[in-house]
Write a structure and sequence with these properties.
Layout: E1 8-11, E2 15-21, E3 25-32, E4 37-45, E5 53-61, E6 64-71, H1 72-78, E7 79-82
Antiparallel strand pairs: 1-4, 1-7, 2-3, 4-5, 5-6
Length: 88
């Protein structure tokens, strides 16, 4: 994988994330503000998505942890990546 675990990410713009349930579809949405920081905590590839690299990122949003999965291309487009770090 191109990025290591514990890579710090900072959003370049405000992101709207849709929380989904496999059976019922969209349940709610979360807004991650521009400049929010997160940490890559997991990465991998899935045959379901043609083995594209994916990264799981934890953001601290208003005192709660929010986990978001990004394809590598989307992560690079939406976030600034820095090796190592902690989220605030």
């Amino acid at each position: 994988m191109k990025y290591d675990l514990d890579t710090k990410v900072t959003t370049k713009r405000e992101l709207t994330i849709f929380v989904t349930d496999e059976e019922s579809g969209v349940e709610s949405e979360i807004v991650i503000r521009e400049g929010a920081t997160g940490i890559i905590y997991s990465s991998g590839r899935s045959s379901e998505y043609d083995f594209k690299p994916m990264y799981d990122v934890t953001f601290n949003i208003e005192g709660r942890e929010v986990e978001v999965t990004f394809f590598e291309k989307d992560l690079e487009e939406e976030c600034i990546l820095e090796t190592g770090g902690t989220i605030e």
